Amino acid sequence: MTTVKVNGATRLYAIIGDPIVQVRSPELYTELFAAAGMNAVMVPMHVMPEEFDRTVPALMALENLDGLIATVPYKARVVRFATRLGNTAARIGALNALRRESDGTWTGDMFDGLGFVRAAERKGYTLRGRRAALFGAGGAGRAIGCELAAAGIESLSIVDPLHERAVALAKTLADAFPACRVAAMATLPDNADMIVNASTVGMREGDGLPADIGALTRDTLVGDVVVSENPTPIIRHAMRHDCRHITGRDMFYGQQDALMAFFTAA
Amino acid sequence: MTTVKVNGATRLYAIIGDPIVQVRSPELYTELFAAAGMNAVMVPMHVMPEEFDRTVPALMALENLDGLIATVPYKARVVRFATRLGNTAARIGALNALRRESDGTWTGDMFDGLGFVRAAERKGYTLRGRRAALFGAGGAGRAIGCELAAAGIESLSIVDPLHERAVALAKTLADAFPACRVAAMATLPDNADMIVNASTVGMREGDGLPADIGALTRDTLVGDVVVSENPTPIIRHAMRHDCRHITGRDMFYGQQDALMAFFTAA
Questions:
Q1: Which residues, in sequence order, are CB contacts of A217 under 8 Å at separation 6+?
Q2: Does B104 touch chain A (CB under 8 A)?
Q3: What is the mean pLDDT of chain B?
Q4: Using 50, 70 and 90 to split pLDDT, how confident is the model at B108?
C-alpha cells in the first residue's frame, strides 16, 4: 500500500469499475501524484452497472475531482461523458482516462494499447512483422489492436465471443492501417506468432485459458491484459513453453508515464 | 496533513460541502480509521448546490462508500437521503453524518451539538443554568440549541436573520424541553451569560462579529462553530474580554469519539 496525505484541499482522482478491489491504480497514481508534488489522491470507486449513467456525471460534477480512470466493464460505456476524445479513443470508441480541463470540459483518451506496446519495447520484444491473434474486442482489445497495427505488425486476427465486435474492430483497423492484414475470426489461427488475451478471462479464480491455444513455439510472444498478483493462466501457459510474455501488470506500468502526462496537461 | 494508505480495497468516506478546502475531517477521520485498523479514507468532495440532489444519491450508490459527513451548507438538505434518523437529527431536521448499514440502507444523525457540549465538559465549563443566546438556527445551531437545552441551560434566545427559522427552532425546543425557556428574538438579549455563534459568519476573510454583542463580562461563556486556523472574530472578542470560550475546533474534536462510534456501528 502507498502512503499518501489527504486534507480539505486534496484534489480527487477516481478509478471506476466493477469489481474494484483488484485495481492497482490507487496505489500507483497516488504515489506518482505525490512524487509530482501534487496534493491529490486516486481512490477506488465501485460503480454498479445499473447506477453507472447517473453516477459518472455526478462524479464529474464534483468541483475537486480532476480525473477518472475507467476499468472493466466501463471503458466503452464511459465515452459518452467525454466532451472530446484523443485520437485513439475516438478511433476505437473506448477510453480509460478522463481529465477535467481548466474550462470544466472533459477530455478522454485510451492508454491501454500504448501501455502494452511500451511494455514490449521495455522488454526488448519486436512487434513489427508479427502475425498477431487478439482474443477480445472490448475496450482494452480495441486499444491494443490499434496500437499493434500502428507498431507495424503484419497481420491481426481478432476473435471475440461477440463476433460482431470482432468484425467492427477489423473494419476500423483495416480502414486506419491498410498495411496490416486484419480479419475477424471464429477461432485463433494456427500461424500466429503472437497471442494476446484482451478479455477478462483470467480475472476470476478458477478461470482457464481464453481459448484453446494449444502448444506454443518459443518464438511466440504472449500478452495478457489481466492484472494479477500471480501469473494468469495464459501467462503460466507462456512460461511453461518458455515464451516471451507481456503481463497485465506490464501493460499497467507501461502506460503510467503517458497517463501522468495526460492528467497533468489540463 | 495525515499519512494514509489507499488501495483497491480501501473503503471510502467523504465529507460533502461548499466550500470544501477548509474542512479538517479528511485529516482527522482518516487518521482515526487507520488507528482503528480500518482500510478506509475520508476524502473531501466539493458538491455544488445545483448538483447536490443528483450527486448525493450517486455517491451513496458507490458500493465502497460507507459514510458521509455533511458540512455547510448541506446539513439540513441532506436529511431527505437518510433511510432513518437518530433522535437528534429527527428532532431538528439536520444531520452531519450518514452511515451505510449492512443491508444497504442509510442512517443519519447529528453530532455538532454533542461535540459542543463535550468540548465544554472537557474544558470544565458549566452549562447548567446558563442564559444562552444562540446566533444562527441552521443545522449546527439547531443541534447546539437542542443539546444545550438537554444539558440543563435555564433559557435560550435564538436569533437568525431568517426569523422564521428561529421561531421554528424555538417551538421545537420548547416542546421537547419544557424546563428550558426558549424564545426567538430579533436581537441578542442583554442578560445572556453565554453567546454562541452558530452561523457561518467568521468563515470568510474580513468577517466581523455575527451581531453587535457589546462588551462581555468575564463570566460570559462564548462559543463558535466556525473551524479556523486562527481565532475567529467572536473568539478574539471573547479572548479580549478574558472569557471562557469553545471554538469550532473544540466542537469538531469534541464529536470525534461519538462520530467514530457511529461510523463503526454499522
A1: A193, A241, A243
A2: no
A3: 95
A4: very high
- Would residue A171 show up in a list of annotated catalytic residues for this protein? no
- Average per-residue pLDDT for chain A: 95
CATH superfamily placement of domain B113-251: NAD(P)-binding Rossmann-like Domain (3.40.50.720)
- Cell 478461470 -> residue: A207
The rounded radius of gyration (Å) of the Cα atoms in chain B is: 18
C-alpha cell at B74: 448541506
| pLDDT on residue A215 | 76
B54–A47 CB contact, under 8 Å: no
Q: What length is written for chain A?
A: 266
ipTM, two decimals, is 0.89
User: Can you give the residue ranges of every domain in chain A?
Assistant: 11-110, 113-251
pLDDT of residue B214: 76
Tell me which residues of B are annotated as active site: 75
Q: How far is A19 from chain B (nearest CA, A)?
A: 10
According to CATH, what is the number of the domain A11-110?
3.40.50.10860
Residue with cell 466556525: B226
Characterize the bridge pairing of strands A97-100 and A106-109: antiparallel
Mean pLDDT score, A193-203: 94
Place of cell 492484472: A227
A117-161 residue pLDDT tens: 999 999 999 999 999 999 999 999 999 999 999 999 999 999 999
**pLDDT tens readout for residues A65-123:** 999 999 999 999 999 999 999 999 999 999 999 999 999 999 999 999 999 999 999 99
Residue A258, amino acid: A
Q: pLDDT (tens digit, 9 = 90+) per residue, A30-69?
A: 999 999 999 999 999 999 999 999 999 999 999 999 999 9
List chain B residues with CB under 8 Å of A22: 8
- Decide if B11-110 and B113-251 have a common fold: yes
CB contact under 8 A, B48 and A63: yes
Say whether residue A199 is in contact with chain B using an 8 A CB cutoff: no
B110: confidence class by pLDDT, cuts 50, 70, 90: very high
Q: How far is A206 from chain B (nearest CA, A)?
A: 21
Which pTM does this prediction carry? 0.91
Among A95, A12, A67, A17, which residue's Cα sits nearest to residue B62?
Answer: A17
> In sequence order, what are the residues at sequence separation of 6 or more whose Cβ sits closer than 8 angstroms to the Cβ of residue A222?
A194, A195, A196, A216, A234, A235, A237, A238, A243, A244, A245, A246
Nearest-angstrom CA–CA distance, A49 and A44: 15
Alpha-carbon distance of A5 to A40, in angstroms, equals 8
> Which residue blocks in B136-180 are alpha helix, DSSP H?
139-150, 163-176
DSSP string, A10-50: PEEEEEEESS-TT--HHHHHHHHHHHTT--EEEEEEE--GG
